[in-house]
């Protein structure tokens, strides 16, 4: 298919014909500015609405982190959400240095849908500055920190102590949507050996900027698609509990309720009939007397479950005991 020229290209072409010049460079420059390359290998999985949910939760998280850091480090901090992006995990992994420390966070959903692992990365200069303040220093930005900097054992202990404060407020950040428990699983310094998330798995990266006394750094939170699928599934069920799921399956809320109560004990009573008699007649009753129940001989027996009639049946004998054979279900 031939290329469609823009109005600016047509004007340049006419000017070139009149003036005898060349427009090849202008056409190519103009065409390059009009188009954006789309990666069909990594199609977008989450809509803007779902990404906005993550954005809102982490905006709340940023406010909580700022308050927590102010009290922990006794310094003024500014915590800002920069971006929420969807990408492949290998893009996140490739941007890390070999010795970067990652915090593996276990996220537990309070439901049968399980949970997953969230990864947090804090840039080295920012973490070293916070460690310096924890040890009584001024928390100034470290000089000449190599990208291959390796934390010492003592620094890793302090690293974990600081991240406990950051992870501790994650639950409150999600509180407006659903209840999730977060806990540190471990601090990993050899991220190349990690197998918690597949390299081609789609993840959402949350980038948070932290400024403490003119020392700037970033906190990157990596949320895998397996966890997000469970989270968004729960949120969708909350919005429309009676609707069908995206896969076309019937919602299992009623079945789940039945599963939880099916072991309960219920009293079943079979009533043959009833009659109204005077107190004098009851007083005069003796062995051998007959009470008329005002029902035909072959009529149904009412079967009650608790105080409600559920079935009608016929009296009989089973294993030498009186029994009732269910004849019909009372739909009322």
List the helices and strands and how they pair.
Blueprint: H1 7-19, H2 24-34, H3 48-73, E1 77-88, H4 89-94, E2 102-109, E3 115-122, H5 124-134, H6 153-168, H7 170-173, E4 180-188, E5 202-212, E6 215-224, H8 225-239, H9 253-261, E7 268-271, H10 279-283, E8 301-305, E9 308-318, E10 321-329
Antiparallel strand pairs: 1-5, 2-3, 2-4, 3-6, 5-6, 7-8, 8-9, 9-10
Provide the CATH topology of the largest domain.
Answer: Chemotaxis protein chec
Number of domains: 3
Calculate Rg over CA atoms.
36 Å
Number of helices, where a helix is a run of at least 4 consecutive DSSP H or I residues: 10
**C-alpha geometry:** elongated
Secondary structure: helix percent: 25-40%
Helix/strand structural class: alpha+beta
End-to-end C-alpha gap: 70 Å
Please report which band the strand proportion falls in: under 5%, 5-15%, 15-25%, 25-35%, 35-45% or over 45%.
25-35%
What is the CATH first-level class name of the largest domain?
A: Alpha Beta
3D architecture notes:
With 332 residues, the chain is of the alpha+beta class. The chain has helices at residues 7-19, 24-34, 48-73, 89-94, 124-134, 153-168, 170-173, 225-239, 253-261, 279-283, and strands at 77-88, 102-109, 115-122, 180-188, 202-212, 215-224, 268-271, 301-305, 308-318, 321-329. A hairpin with a 2-residue loop joins β5 (202-212) and β6. The longest helix has 26 residues, at 48-73.
């Amino acid at each position: 298919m031939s290329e469609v020229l823009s109005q600016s290209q047509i004007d340049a072409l006419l000017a070139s014909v009149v003036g005898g010049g060349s427009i090849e460079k202008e056409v190519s420059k103009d065409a390059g500015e009009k188009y954006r390359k789309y990666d069909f290998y990594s199609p977008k999985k989450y809509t803007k609405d779902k990404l906005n949910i993550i954005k809102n939760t982490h905006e709340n998280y940023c406010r909580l982190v700022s308050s927590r850091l102010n009290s922990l480090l006794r310094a003024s901090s500014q915590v800002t959400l920069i971006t929420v992006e969807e990408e492949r995990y290998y893009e996140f992994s490739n941007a890390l240095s070999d010795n970067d420390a990652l915090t593996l966070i276990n996220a537990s959903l309070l439901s049968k849908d399980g949970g997953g692992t969230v990864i947090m990365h804090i840039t080295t200069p920012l973490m070293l500055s916070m460690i310096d303040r924890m040890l009584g220093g001024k928390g100034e930005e470290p000089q000449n920190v190599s990208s291959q900097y390796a934390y010492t054992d003592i620094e890793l202990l302090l690293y974990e102590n600081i991240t406990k404060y950051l992870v501790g407020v994650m639950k409150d950040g999600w509180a407006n949507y659903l209840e999730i428990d977060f806990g540190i699983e471990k601090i990993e310094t050899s991220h190349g050996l990690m197998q918690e998330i597949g390299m081609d798995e789609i993840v959402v990266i949350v980038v948070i900027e932290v400024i403490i006394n003119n020392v700037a750094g970033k906190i990157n939170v990596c949320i895998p698609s397996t966890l997000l699928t469970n989270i968004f599934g729960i949120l969708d069920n909350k919005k429309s509990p009676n609707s069908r799921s995206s896969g076309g399956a019937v919602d299992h809320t009623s079945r789940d309720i039945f599963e939880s109560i099916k072991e309960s004990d219920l009293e079943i009573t079979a009533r043959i009939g009833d009659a109204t008699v005077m107190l004098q007649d009851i007083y005069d009753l003796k062995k051998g007397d007959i009470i008329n129940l005002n029902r035909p001989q072959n009529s149904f027996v009412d079967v009650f479950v608790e105080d409600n009639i559920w079935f009608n049946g016929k009296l009989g004998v089973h294993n030498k005991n009186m029994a009732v054979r269910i004849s019909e279900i009372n739909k009322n």
